[in-house]
Amino acid sequence: MAANGKRKVAAWALVLAVALTACQSQRAGGGGGGDVKTDVGITSEPCPGSSHADRGCIYLGVLSDLTEGPFRALAVPITEAQKAFWKRVNDQQNGIGGRYDVDIDTYTRDNKYNPEEQVAKFREIEPKVLALAQSLGTPPTLATLPLFKDSDVVAAPASWWSGWAFEDVVLESGHNYCIESMNGLDFAAAEFGKPATVMAVHYPGDYGGDSAAGVTEWAKVNGVSFDAKANNVQTLPNAQAGNQDAAVGAILKVKPDVVMLATGPAEMAEIVGKSVAQGFKGRFVGSAPTFNNALLKSEAAPAIKASYHVMAPWSPFGASDDAAHKAMQEAVGAGKVPANDGYTQGWMWSYPLKAVLQKAFDDGDLTRAGVRKAVGEVTVDYEGAMPPKKYSGDPNQNVVRTSLVAKPDDSAPLGLSVFKEQAAGPTAQQFKFTKPCQSVG
Amino acid sequence: MRGRPELFTSYESDQAPLNTPARRRLLAVLLAVLLVLPFGLTGELTALLATAMLSAVGAIGLNLVTGYAGQVSLGHAFFLGLGAYTAAVLSGDPDGEVLGYGLDMAIWLPAAGLVAAVVGLVVAPVATRLKGLYLAIVTLGLVLIGEHLFRELRFITGGPGIGRPAARLELFGVELGRRTEVAGWVISREMQLYFIALVVLLVLAVAAKNLTRSAVGRAFAAVRDRDVAAEVMGVSLTRYKLIAFTVSSFYAGVAGALLATVTGFVEPGGFDLLLSVQFLAMILIGGVATLSGSLLGAAFVVLLPRLVQELPRVLPFVTSESTGGFLTTFQLQTILYGVLIVVFLIAEPRGLFGLWVRARNYWRAWPFSY
User: Fold this and answer.
1) Which of A391, A395, B218, B345 would bridge A165 by S-S if both were Cys, CB 3.0 to 4.6 A apart?
2) Residues of chain B contacting residue A339, judged by C-beta atoms under 8 Å apart
3) What is the mean pLDDT of residues B278-288?
4) Taking the complete model, does pTM exceed 0.90, yes or no?
């Protein structure tokens, strides 16, 4: 009897132990073998649908605004561009060191531009991915930032928030919203005469807040009076606010010479269209995410073409003949164009992660920690579309101070032609970048 | 009574919570399974089960006021939100951008329930004057007011589209919401959430069971079944409606606080009418005025979306892509809620619990069941 009882105990202990080890080994998946260290998000089996049977697979996650958020029109081409970018890496550039392909399809999830959704989706895919090929939106990405740091997940943001320069796990590209605003107003001052009043109309949170901080800084440096309440107007996406009438009312009341916009594309069109229709005579300069070429077919099109310019960190699709733009054209197919310029953004945002993965591979350490470490060691090559970029050292030195000005143009392939080439305005040049323009909140 | 488990010789034994051996055995097996389950599941499913159990806490709360006391409430989302934000504020980082006091879970968890309960107590007098459709409209107003408050009180909620981190799971100074290793075994964050949810659910479910089989529970039923008759018998309508609303709000507050910790982030847009309707769906699908119904319904409503996600593999015309295709999984989920509520109301008003009773009675009389 006693022996029987002992056997029972032993059997139960075994069951428990097996169950526990099963849960323990969930995370330690993969292992590409050989001399490269790996942990999470890498398998030695080929990627789903890959033609390279001899290569392992690196899984990257994508958290994007794919169905109902304010940036869905841009987010879909951004994601398409990234698929094409990594397909090119796999098929034409020998993958990562000839040993791994990269898959971003399996763990593409919809964050709806909602921080709560983003956190939930990140928790879902985190145990299965090495890094994030895209994390769209400043507020959603900020919500997951502590989780990125905890689990050593490096992410390419689809966002230009100034604070990313101070975070090693986020691989930003191009100017930030803050410098974009300064350059936008410097451009307007040079082009249309120095404005007597400027205004910032923006989303709440860090995208809009960053842009507005740039406007505030510009006003201070250039001696233009700027009332923190009247000239600095928050507006919500239409999904929450219904319409932009309050913002339009505020613009018509203040009658500024230049309005700097940081909203979604549909909201921009409504604000510009309604303000101009009600007799507003000033200029609009939009942050890069405010434009979508589909708006040129909307009823606001004449107003947009007449009084709106949009900032961009790099040349729009088809507007430059550097290697990056040629590769994009090749990926889309000769003579074809993507849905909108979100495609260019998605493509450019992918270069840093490719460089980091390659560097981590060269160092023989494709673990999460190895990838995070590689961030400080790379110099990103944008194939001529942008000057090379580093993430180590002083943000004040590394920060990109140049922006490009584009103009809505029916004849251009994506409704945007370059109006003024890459340049850093005087305000951005002297700006001391020691902390995020708009702090976390 | 040995050998005759269904013979009750006193009201007490008839009303006892586990009055048959079958029930006791079933509960023991269920508990054993629940204790072992997370060790064999992925983190995602463990978190989902934790969500189901915490939703069950909220559903029990709604069932107390709507199922047992018969007062239709569409305002449950508001109380869930109150709980979530009370907890987030009390436990939040004192140096953060939004209000926070950095307090322990031992404080914020009861406080979340109490704040919701107090607000429930304050609004309940309105409810005591109304019933049926009018009450539904008033509680609907509550959700709308709540939505507005959560949107505008940015120093508390962070504002729409921004949100704030949810309460931190730190109990008596021990950080729970983090992967830890105990003697070489990895205890994931999801597992810790799961066991917190299990304990809270057990405590509150037993409390609810005891409430419903006491004088208060019988008074609830009297108010629900005929308010005039109840009053004639000396049951104070005001008193029992107040109790029902207050207790129900307490449950909602606790559930809201803990539900938010599963994702770890709260966005004010989430506490809308849809959430209230989901909880109503839980008790309607599960079974009105039964405790097990609340549990079954919560599990069903929470797990349904996950099941639907698997459908594209089986049904080719359902697509998991966000756009295109004949029917996306998201559309299917929304349709299924509606269809299921209608089907249950018509075919089995007692809900999943009713189905269980039917199955049980069938097998009990087998092979002579008809």
Assistant:
1) A395
2) none
3) 88
4) no
